[in-house]
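Input for the complex:
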Amino acid sequence: MSFISLLWVLLLGSLLGLELIGKVPPTLHTPLMSGANAISGITMLAALTLIVKAEGNVPLLIIGSVSLGFALFNVVGGFFVTDRMLAMFSRKPSNKK
Amino acid sequence: MNLPVIIKFVIDLLAVLLLALGIKGLSKVKSARDANRLAAFAMSLSVVGLLSYYLGTSGIAIQSWIWIIIGSIIGSLFGAILAKKVPMTSMPETVALFNGCGGMSSLLVALGVAIFPISNSVENLDFFKSLINEVSISVSIFVGAITFTGSMVAMAKLQGWLSTPGWTQSKVRHFVNIVFAVASLIAFFDLINGNTSSIWLLVIVSSLLGIGVTLPIGGADMPVVISLLNSYSGIAAAAAGFVVDSQLLIVAGAMVGAAGLILTQVMCKGMNRSLVSVLFGGSLSAQSTASSGSGEYTNITSCSVEECALTLEAANKVIIVPGYGLAVAQAQHTLREVTKKLEQSGIEVVYAIHPVAGRMPGHMNVLLAEADVPYEQLKEMDVVNPDFPATDVVLVLGANDVVNPQAKNDSSSPLYGMPVLDVQEARTVFVIKRGMSAGYSGIKNDLFDLPNTSMVFGDAKKVLNDLIGELKDLGVGEK
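Predicted:
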């Protein structure tokens, strides 16, 4: 991948992000923030790449592993906590029936 | 193109699509929960894509597998446990903690690549390519470090572990932060020039910058800061994507970065604050001490729980205004008991939710939902404001600034212009509050002085419990 095409990827990704959220009801501010936060843990892919390419370099393996741990803490925790919050909203209608 | 490359390309494309749909769905109540799961699925898909690509090309050494498994198990386990255990009231600091760890991860990746250049990717690079490499490593470290320390400070402040030190409210803080910023800039360029040792300088000063910028910000503005830091962690991820040459990482990081920015903007609007004043204005209370709004209360009416119960019994329509104090007292379940009693005796009960009620926009909705309050009873500010004149009783529970009429009447007040709930229009207002202390803004609340306002002093949970007892004695809700 050339640098220029990566820049294009960056630009288009940003534009997509700007378009995705238009009007958000205040109710969802906290869950949305928490969900987006979980997605930002996508940096786990970088950590994985680091570990795979470390080729036996133990300090690098450790750094990668710690980094992966931090990222997954963010991802797993973030998605679970968002689900917990959202579960409270979606439970309501079924209760009423 | 060989097969693994094609497979990875298809999976990546699918993952990006699903992530975008996930973010989109999260902004609508109906689809939010599924959207969250969709995003989680997309994330696991991206991992599968990456691992299968390496399996199909270079292969993955056993040693790498071991470290991958160790890292993932520990990280996921702690994340899952924390997410399950944490009380709903401390959601904001939890998000801050998760966010900080995401930033830390990007920081570590960049550090790792900088210290131990990955073989066969850096060694035989031309000048241009290695420059890009250095730049993306530096950006990743810079943003990652700010995200990490900033989030940690935000968490500590929300938890109450850290108060706002006095000196951070003086002008000195701008000078200190400028010094940190300039120092990180110097380290940044030094690093790009090939001086690898300045990497540690960059780590240290950008960490300090994160602390220096976040520390002066008051508790009321913290949600905005967390949202902004969330956006930063996206940028850090995108930068890490440049470091390891991953398009998926760049797209997803940029998407979260941009979406986080929009969300920050939306939140600022709800609080009537501009991003600039949040970031550089210091805490609101520091400015307001000099304002004309502060002063003594002259006409406070205090009343007992019994009077409150008697008035409630005679009411037809009651509006509840829950606030931060309710969240702190964990009284949402007790509140639900009270409103159930009122409803059973035919009194109409509605909850008025200010956009920034609780500790974070949307936080109060989560707390009330946890206490089984029907979703339809939660009314947003614009919907409920016209209803106040036709309301008999308003119960203000631990809310303060969001019901201050100054925001409408007094143009010299720092609150002026902030959207508020017009509770004073109702026939009777009961304010349940621990004492006469001011709200987040530190400003006197004119509502408390009004003739139709009565104060019920006490901890929200205790007052509500007493209220249940009084209502029982009156036979409310027992048929």
